[in-house]
Amino acid sequence: MQINGCSAIVVGGTGGLGEATVRRLHSEGAKVVVADVADDKGKELERELGVRYVRTDAGDEDSVLAAIAEAESLGPLRISVDCHGGPAGGGRLVGKDGSAMSLEAFTTTINSYLISVFNVMRLSAAAMGRQEALESGRGVIINTASIAAYEGQIGQLPYSAAKGGVVGMTLVAARDLSPLGIRVVTIAPGTFLTPAYGKAGDQLEAYWGPQVPHPQRMGRSPEYATLVSSIVENDYLNGEVIRLDGALRFPPK
After folding, report:
1. Averaged pLDDT for residues 17-31
2. What residues form DSSP beta bridges with 219?
3. Which UniProt keywords apply (predicted)?
4. Which of 234, 13, 241 is nearest to 140 (CA)?
5. Once rounded to an integer, what is the mean pLDDT over residues 1-25?
6. pLDDT top residue among 44 and 197
């Protein structure tokens, strides 16, 4: 599928992975809508690149529909990338004091990292289904999981469950959407160094870098964006979860 001339929605487009994706798709000719809740950063990208920013709560139907409508006003919506963040409750299933993990902490994380992803995916798919079918299909949906879906660490149960859910949806969604010619692919990043870490980034790099087999460093946001571009352009990538982790496997803690 050609990126040039398509419209694209990037949910979480002001974050590290999202901003890199916005810049990559924009540079390749896509008409990009940045869908996020960070107004200052979103408007900054809008001014710098000429993309559109729409304040978007990934878990709210009307909010996501507004971002999709903006994308459709720019051209046929054929690319949806979801890499939004959010609160991630954690802790052991049973704490050292003998108390059970908070149900609220679990459900909050599931809502943020799984249900919101489903919300964006279903609404993007319906919009893509309205587009004219090309030889390459109607579009591609790219979700973001984590290697924690496979090797969740101690204290990561809610986050691991949510990301595992994103992994589990991938093949089924691809099969569901195959009659419409819409592909679904998930990226499962390892440890990525993004601006959100601020001054703590150096400490994280020193901790995680040596644990990555090769290259021995944390991932960089443009590497995620490069994979997004490759997925869009390769029509035979479908129903797959791609680990992007330098062969890292999380230890228990």
Report:
1. 98
2. 192
3. Oxidoreductase
4. 234
5. 97
6. 44
Give tens-digit pLDDT for 109-154: 999 999 999 999 999 999 999 999 999 999 999 999 999 999 999 9
For the record, the structure tokens of 105 come out as 């902490």
Q: Is 159 a catalytic residue?
A: yes
pLDDT digits (tens, 9 = 90+) for 80-113: 999 998 877 788 999 999 999 999 999 999 999 9
- Pick the catalytic residue from 53, 113, 150, 159: 159
Domains of the chain: 7-244 (3.40.50.720)
Cβ–Cβ < 8 Å for 149, 160 = yes
DSSP string, the chain: ---TT-EEEEETTTSHHHHHHHHHHHHTT-EEEEEES-HHHHHHHHHHH--EEEE--TT-HHHHHHHHHHHHHHS-EEEEEE----------SB-TTSPBPPHHHHHHHHIIIIIHHHHHHHHHHHHHTTSPPBTTBSEEEEEE--THHHHPPTT-HHHHHHHHHHHHHHHHHHHHHGGGTEEEEEEEE--EE-GGGGGGHHHHHHHHGGGSSSSSS-EEHHHHHHHHHHHHH-TT--SEEEEESTT------
**Hey, what are 226's tokens?**
């490069």
Tokens 């974050």 locate to 15
Total Cβ atoms within 10 A of residue 96 = 7
